[in-house]
Each structure stands twice: as structure tokens, then as C-alpha cells.
């Protein structure tokens, strides 16, 4: 096919009426897999348009531009019936590769599945919610509700620790597009559309239940928090002689053997096993004796600078990593020590920034980098291409304030 | 179709040769969407078979059973050429719905794409890795490397805080199956197979870059950690008069207005805006003055017990939630206050446990609950059904120790 990128979703068109992390990150992934993502925003931008972090250079949101890379942007007056009609027409345009929409709008009955399916019976809509009953929720409210902050942070401390990473949001986005592609598979075979709903709170509950944590709490009561120790096996952080910090993990017997060997502690642990009557090859025993194990190992790390620790642990095939601040991660990538998943772009409105490719590689090959659109940049192009509007019609829409000037 | 479940991936067969969280959780989601997931393990189980949490009642892993619900289990001697041959045959079986494999095996050249594609040119393989260069990594080592623990935890504290939730693992699993379904879409249309690789470290790097955090750190240096405050707008936890804790968020002007109104603090904040010359309708100003705002609001929460706080915040449509321990989450669900996403099953080997359905609903409808298989439970059934082995052949495999007795 001339001009084909060979990407698996090439040709597919997805209308995204969503904001913040979940919908935008999921749809961005579909875009990286080749789909044409049309992000629809209200004129002036959605509630996430100024979300932090923002660039000090220009005031533009680094968050919004990072989450909307490679998309086309359409800006419409979503309060006007005519603007709403345009969105419905985009979402239900005819053609095998159209008729797919992702939204996270609470209280927008005009964009309901009933409305869309009336226009196109095989439409696929994935509706992302806070709670399944339609009440709003965000990652920061959902996470405390499912018990994770009470498990996080220093042992013995009473106060729960919120996570900073909006993990449930990211997971919800990817779950949403997994459901979308499954529904598309069915539509390709049977012609049937689908209305899928996904609540962030359900993603989080299913997430903690999905690792057995809910069943554990019901059977055994609340697990005590254990600081930076990994749960149920051995893994914890150590300070090095030069004030750096490393995370060291011995999940499997082989990793545990490697750690003992490189630190020269085999005899110490053999004697400990003898005197305590335990077998530290059992991961549960390593967890139970985690503080003891860490105390035996600590002097080895304190006696070495990070460079030495790196050399020796790597040579011994220990499973470990070094802690970095975000600034150090960026600096390391700039110095060439990063990963091919990070590249750079000249982001219009901001300037040169580090940016991510899709982590999904075809063989060894990463996909290209991309920039985010200017808000409303593609309004005319998309309405012309998908709905067949001509210049006069587009001009009328701008004049009536139905779409932003583009 | 008689007997059809109507699930979108019905008929699809995926061979899973993976352990721990990423591959198993991603494939479980495909199973919940209707696919037949065949999990292949070594005889005796993979490295995750005893992973914590484990049931005190029976010693069985609550983690393994939660991550492998609804799958069929095949147990094979993966060191023997004959056992490896069986896995290759399962992964490359003919038929439109076969020829899909997910693995996370480092150093298993016998299960390489080259080997598989030689047997079936349109095979789809998704290979999950630690690092893109093949070195091992786990969530607990990757997260410190990408800078998140340095952003997490109490403001001013020097020590990084590891997250407890293996967020990158969960996200990698769902990213892997998103890639898988995209490749399947292409195969259905073009007949082409695919070899996709996904490194956990890349998922994490792309994750932090994907919210603009990497670009921010490069431009502005390291952000200081800010405890339980939400970044870039207003959101923080408050203690209630009865010693409970709530998370309160005012991301948007409307949420901020609701919070001021219900707490009766409009005049205080108006006066503060006057004297400080700021506009707290700007989220960046709410973040800058977060400690001041929290200090003004705190007495309102301290003067009320959780029941009152709940009633008043809900009536005012404030965005908030209550902190719970995992045990409280479980108890609340048992008391009927949970979500339809959680159900219960009688898990063979363990007994009655709380378990999750898929958070993806068709309309309002959740899918069914499911139990995990016994290790190797379906070895005979699967090898008979997919490879056409008869009883004598299966008996021979058992006798030769190639598969576990089933």
C-alpha cells in the first residue's frame, strides 16, 4: 500500500472526548499503533488543558502535550446543539474504520450510547467513569479508598502515604483500549457494535483484588506496612558508601544465591539458618527475616561507592537498580545512557523537550516520536475530511462560534 | 451461535508462558473478554507459584490464584526437548484463532519468534522483558530507576519511598495485550503476523515522560516532594474529629467553589485573595498556597465526625473519598457497600475468597466471576483438543515425565 506505515491500526479512526490521564493515554497508545486519534475539546480547552507540570518557558502544559502526542485536535463549542451535532457526526461517520468513540464525560446525555447507536447501530463506545454509578472520582480519591496508602511508606508510621503516580488512571486508560480493540475484533467478524463502561474505582478494586490483597486482608486482617521492603520475599534499599541508594531484590533462589555470593555472606547465612532452624531458600522465610538479612548485608554496601557496587552486582547477576531523581533520569538520557524509548521533539508552544515513543516495539524497533497538536489545529481539516464540509461551511461554523478559529 | 457467550474475543486462543504480574494480568483480561487462555507452566509451577500473599488456611498463593482466574493450566517439563516441542506446537497450532503467544521468558531461545514463525508464519508473539536489551528487571527495581520513589512520601523527608502497588507491571500487562489485539486486527485484515516486544523499564520511562514529568525535571530540576498533596492544584488529606481520614480534591473551579461553600470559607479565601493579590480559581495558585488553604480548612474537618463530613461533602458535591485499610475495604464489601466488580468464589485449594470480575462492563453488566485452575489441571484436555493427542499418547507423555500427571 503506497504511503502505508505498516502500523497495525493504520486507517482506524477514534474520536476521543476525554480529559486528564485515562482516556488520553489509552487513545495515545492506539495512535502510536497507527490509529487516527481525533481529540475533541471545548473551545479554550478541557479541564486538563493547563494541568501541571507546565513549562516555565511558555506557561504551556507539559502534561497535556505529553498525553496528546500524535493526535489531531478539534475545538468545538460543546454547549451548542450545532457543536454537539458535529461531535456526534464525527463519532458516527460511516465507513468500516469509523464509528469508535472514547469519552469520560459525566452528565453529557447528548453523547450517550443511545444517541450514537441511533445514528450508527454498530458504533463502539467506551465510556470511562469515576464510579460505576456515574459519580465522579479521580485517581487521588480512588487510591485511598482501596487501601493502598495504608500499605505504603515507612514501617510503623501511622499516616497513610498517597502515591504520586496516577497508576489507576494509566491502567484504566490501557484497560479501556483493550476493551475497545476486543469490541472492534467482534465488530469486524459479526458487525455488532458495543457499549463498554469502565469505572476508575472498579479498575482499582479489581487491581488490588487481582493480586490477592483483598482476599488476604479478609482472611488475615491488615498487613502491617513494611517500608521499602518488597512483600513476601527479599528486596530492600541500601545506602552506598558515597551516599547513593540502590534497590536489591532476591525473589528467586538463584537471585538469593547471587546476592550471598557477591557479598561473601554465604557462611553467615548458613550459620544463621542453622541456629534459627530456617531455610532462607524459602521466600517466605526471607521475608520474615528481612530485617536480619538487610542488617547482615548493609555493611557490604556501606563499604563501597556506587561504581563499585554497580560493577560487582552486575558481574554477579544480582537483580538490583540504582535510585535516581527525575532530573538524574533526564540527565542520564541526555548523556546517552537512557533507553531508545525516549527521544526529543521540538514541541510547538514549548520548545525542545524529552518525549516518549511507544514502549511497544516491533522486533527491536521503536516507533517515531511525535508532537502534540495546537488546540483546535485540525478542526477544519478533520471536519472537511470526515464530514465533507467545504470552506464556506467551515467559515460559517467559525463565524457562528461553533468551532474555534483554526 | 448456540452456546455463545457473546463475549468479544470468544474463540480466540492465547498461549501464555509468563509469570508474576504483567503477562498473567494482561492475559487474564483477554480471558475475561472471552479468549481461551492456556497458561503453560513448568512441572511444579513457575517462580510465581508460591508468591505472597498466601492463604494461612492452606498455604496456597492468593496472588497466583487471583492472577490466573478463568485460565486453563498446562504443566510441562520445559527443559526437555519434547516438552518444549509441545509448547511450540500449542503456540503455532493452525486455525484463524490460534497462533498467539505471550511470554516473559529471558533466555529461552527455543521459544523465540524465529522458531515460532518457522512453524506458523503469521504467528503473533508478544514478548515481555525487563530491559529492552534482555536484562532482567522487576517492578521493584524499575520504579526507583525512573525517579518515582524520590517524589513519593512526606515533604522534607530525605528517603525515597517505594510504592507498594506494582503499577508498572499492571500497566505493562495491559499494554502488552493492547499491542496483541492491534496485531490481531492487522492479521485479520492482511494475514501478517507480528513480533512485539515490551520492556517493563520502557513502560515506566514512557509512563513518567507521558505525563510531562521528565520534560519538567529537565527544564526545572527536581520537583520537591509534597507529601499527600496533589501536584499542581489543590488536594490533600484531612483528619476528622473521630480520627478518620479523608482525601479532598479541588482540581476544577467548580470543585473549589463547592469546597469553599460547604466549609463556609468563602469570605476567608476572598479576603486572602485580596491581601495576597492572588486568584485561587487558578489551580497553580491553589497549589502554591496549598498549606495555607489546608490550614484554613482543617478545623472544619476536625470539628466533624466522618458521618457528618460524608453527609455534608456529598450534599455539596465535593470531590472526596475516605481512606480505608484493605481489611476495611473487604469488610465494607461483605456488608454490601462495595461495587459489583467484586464477587466471591470457592477457590479450589483455598476456599471462599473475595475475587474481582473484569472492570470492563457491557453496558451496566459485569461479567462472571471465575476460579483459577489447579496447576496442570487441563494438560490432557488442552493437548487433546488443540494437538489431537489421544489417551495413549497423553499417557506416554506422563510416563516419560514430559507433562505432569493430570
TrEMBL record, chains A, B:
Q: Does the keyword Transferase apply?
A: yes
Give the UniProt keywords, A-Z.
Transferase
Q: Name one Pfam family in it.
A: CoA_transf_3
Q: What GO MF terms are annotated?
A: transferase activity
For this protein, the record's PANTHER family field holds:
ALPHA-METHYLACYL-COA RACEMASE, SUCCINYL-COA--D-CITRAMALATE COA-TRANSFERASE
Q: Which protein, by its recorded name, is this? A: CoA transferase
Organism, scientific name: Streptomyces brevispora
Query: Lineage of this protein's species?
Result: Bacteria, Bacillati, Actinomycetota, Actinomycetes, Kitasatosporales
Amino acid at each position: 500500500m503506497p504511503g502505508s506505515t505498516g502500523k497495525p491500526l493504520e486507517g482506524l479512526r477514534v474520536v476521543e472526548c476525554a480529559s486528564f490521564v485515562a482516556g488520553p493515554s489509552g487513545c495515545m497508545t492506539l495512535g502510536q499503533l497507527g490509529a487516527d486519534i481525533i481529540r475533541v475539546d471545548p473551545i479554550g480547552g478541557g479541564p486538563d488543558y493547563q494541568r501541571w507540570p507546565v513549562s516555565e518557558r511558555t506557561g504551556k502544559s507539559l502534561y497535556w502535550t505529553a498525553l496528546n502526542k500524535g493526535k489531531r485536535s478539534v475545538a468545538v463549542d460543546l454547549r451548542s446543539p450545532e457543536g454537539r451535532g458535529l461531535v456526534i457526526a464525527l463519532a458516527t461517520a460511516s465507513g468500516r474504520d469509523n464509528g469508535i468513540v472514547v469519552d469520560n464525560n459525566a452528565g453529557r446525555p447528548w453523547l450517550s450510547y443511545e444517541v450514537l447507536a441511533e445514528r450508527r447501530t454498530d458504533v463502539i463506545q467506551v465510556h470511562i467513569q469515576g464510579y460505576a454509578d456515574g459519580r465522579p472520582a479521580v485517581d487521588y480519591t480512588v487510591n485511598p479508598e482501596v487501601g493502598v496508602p495504608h500499605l505504603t511508606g515507612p514501617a510503623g508510621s501511622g499516616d497513610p502515604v498517597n502515591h504520586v503516580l496516577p497508576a489507576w488512571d494509566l491502567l484504566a486508560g490501557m484497560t479501556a483500549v483493550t476493551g475497545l480493540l476486543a469490541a472492534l475484533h467482534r465488530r469486524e467478524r459479526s458487525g455488532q457494535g458495543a457499549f463498554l463502561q469502565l469505572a476508575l474505582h472498579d479498575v482499582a478494586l479489581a487491581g488490588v483484588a487481582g493480586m490477592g490483597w483483598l482476599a488476604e486482608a479478609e482472611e488475615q486482617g491488615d498487613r502491617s506496612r513494611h517500608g521499602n521492603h518488597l512483600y513476601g520475599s527479599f528486596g530492600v534499599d541500601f545506602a552506598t558508601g558515597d551516599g547513593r541508594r540502590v534497590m536489591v531484590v532476591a525473589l528467586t533462589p538463584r537471585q538469593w544465591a547471587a546476592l550471598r555470593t557477591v557479598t561473601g555472606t554465604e557462611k553467615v547465612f548458613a550459620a544463621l539458618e542453622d541456629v534459627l532452624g530456617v531455610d532462607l531458600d524459602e521466600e517466605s522465610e526471607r521475608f520474615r527475616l528481612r530485617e536480619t538479612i538487610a542488617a547482615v548485608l548493609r555493611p557490604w554496601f556501606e563499604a563501597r561507592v556506587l561504581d563499585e557496587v554497580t560493577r560487582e552486582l552486575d558481574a554477579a547477576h544480582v537483580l538490583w537498580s540504582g535510585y535516581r531523581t527525575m532530573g538524574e533520569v533526564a540527565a542520564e538520557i541526555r548523556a546517552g545512557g537512557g533507553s531508545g524509548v525516549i527521544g526529543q521533539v521540538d514541541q510547538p508552544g514549548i520548545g525542545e523537550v524529552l518525549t516518549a515513543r511507544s514502549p511497544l516495539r516491533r522486533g527491536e524497533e521503536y516507533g517515531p516520536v511525535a508532537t502534540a497538536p495546537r488546540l483546535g489545529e485540525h478542526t477544519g481539516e478533520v471536519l472537511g475530511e470526515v464530514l465533507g464540509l467545504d470552506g464556506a461551511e467551515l467559515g460559517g461554523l467559525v463565524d457562528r462560534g461553533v468551532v474555534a478559529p483554526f
